[in-house]
Specification:
- The protein has helices spanning 2-16, 54-58, 80-88, 113-122, 139-142, 162-167, 176-184, 307-331, 339-346, 348-354, and strands spanning 29-40, 43-51, 70-77, 94-96, 102-106, 131-135, 190-198, 203-204, 207-208, 211-221, 224-225, 229-230, 247-254, 262-281, 287-302, 367-377.
- It contains 10 helices and 16 strands.
- Helix 9 (339-346) crosses helix 10.
- The strands form 3 sheets. Strands 1, 2, 3, 4, 5, 6, 7, 10, 11 and 12 form a 10-stranded mixed sheet that branches. Strands 13-14-15-16 form a 4-stranded mixed sheet. Strands 8-9 form a two-stranded antiparallel ribbon.
- The radius of gyration is 27 Å and the shape is globular.
- It has 2 domains: 25-231, no CATH class; 234-384, GMP Synthetase, Chain A, domain 3 (2-Layer Sandwich).
């Protein structure tokens, strides 16, 4: 009797014991870290980049010198998920999207951007913290770039773009959450970084390295892609970015006669830029004033220059850069300096009038720029 009772108690307790029926074997998983999407000939083409889990640990070990292997796979289908299913047919493991960190869209697929974002965000593993890029390169080339010192690919620009932005503030990285929000925002021009490759600047011993670099941006307005703008065209965009970190500017004076050789050069590190918009004149062709307050310090000087000479030339360079970017944006029908957002938020009645017939595009002459630069530190240099 007692034996039967003991067996009944043990049987009941066994029902409360946690089992391992849902245990995941990491060796059976292929973790996708980057997902590339293209669209051509009526089909989606999906390219995935996978890397071994030890690569994640290596991203925390800057002294590691062991090369990291990446795997690249391709699939295609009428939809994104059928393209994933096509890829799974030949995989030797379960293709897992739980650790996807980057979404890259081929430039020619931008017309399908809304569908791509919808499909990506509907699947359970999607993360709003994933970074989003555009590329004009083949995915196989972009996903097989080199890294320095044999470090993890997770330390490349594509996975860790903040390092690039902090040392040269031009193109800010964009997360999935930021992109979806920006594309829904009235009057706002969303900006997606365009990432490519560079095979000329770096080498390991005598071997040329293929590394990642920014090529420019693709603006979006009302979920529609605008023309590509390269890095040489968007320099003025950095000065209105509220997250600006730093940028080097050199200035110079001609020391010779009759426009002779430029010898007196000063290099300034700009560490702060604060933009402020003001409506000067309303109407169908409004005039908007953009005031930039910048700060920085002197880091290099060859030849005598006064503090006022340096500040004045920095102001002129910043102003010229903003005006050039604005003019290029106007020619490409892109509100790259976010004038419409200013009107939407601060002069909504005027904004409604300007956008009543459709999209409003600023034209040359509607933006006036004023720059004030404060040279807060000159280091060990004595200025006259």
């Amino acid at each position: 009797m007692r034996a039967g009772l003991l067996l009944a108690v043990l049987a009941a307790l066994s029902l409360l014991t946690a089992g391992c029926w849902d245990e995941v074997d990491l060796t059976d998983q292929g973790y996708v870290t980057a997902l590339g999407i293209d669209y051509a000939d009526g089909q989606y083409r999906m390219t995935v980049q996978l890397m071994q889990m030890s690569s994640v640990a290596k991203s925390q070990d800057p002294m590691s010198t062991n090369g990291t292997t990446v795997w690249v796979g391709n699939g295609k289908g009428k939809t994104m998920l059928t393209a994933l299913g096509d890829l799974q047919k030949s995989s030797q493991f379960e293709v897992n999207l739980d650790h996807m960190k980057v979404l890259v869209v081929q430039e020619r697929a931008l017309s399908r951007m809304e569908d791509i974002l919808d499909a990506n965000n509907r699947q359970r593993a999607s993360r709003y913290t994933s970074l989003v890029f555009v590329t004009r390169e083949p995915f196989e080339k972009l996903f097989n770039t080199d890294t320095f010192f044999g470090r993890s690919p997770l330390l490349s620009i594509m996975y860790n773009p903040k390092i690039q932005f902090n040392q040269n503030s031009l193109i800010r990285p964009v997360t999935m959450q930021e992109l979806v929000k920006a594309m829904e925002e009235p009057g706002f021009t969303a900006v997606l970084p365009v990432i490519g490759t560079n095979a000329s600047d770096w080498q390991e011993s005598e071997k040329k390295l293929l590394v990642q670099q920014y090529e420019g941006i693709v603006p979006f307005y009302l979920k529609k892609a605008k023309p590509f703008m390269d890095v040489d065209e968007i320099g003025g965009m950095r000065w209105i970015d509220p997250t600006f970190q730093q940028h080097y500017i050199y200035t110079g004076l001609n020391s010779g006669k009759d426009g002779g050789r430029q010898e007196n050069i000063a290099t300034v590190n700009i560490t702060s830029s604060k933009p402020a918009y003001r409506l000067v004149q309303a109407g169908q062709n409004p005039e908007i004033k953009l005031d930039i307050r910048a700060k920085g310090h002197l880091i290099e000087l060859t030849g005598p220059m006064t503090e006022r000479e340096i500040s004045r030339q920095v102001e002129q360079k910043i102003k010229a850069e903003i005006e050039r970017t604005f003019a290029i944006g106007c020619s490409k029908h892109v509100d790259i300096l976010q004038l419409e957002e200013f009107l939407y938020r601060n002069h909504n009645k005027l904004w409604k009038q300007l956008t009543k017939a459709g999209e409003w595009i600023p034209i040359p002459g509607e933006l006036k720029v004023d720059v004030h630069f404060d040279l807060v530190h000159t280091g060990k240099f004595d200025l006259t």
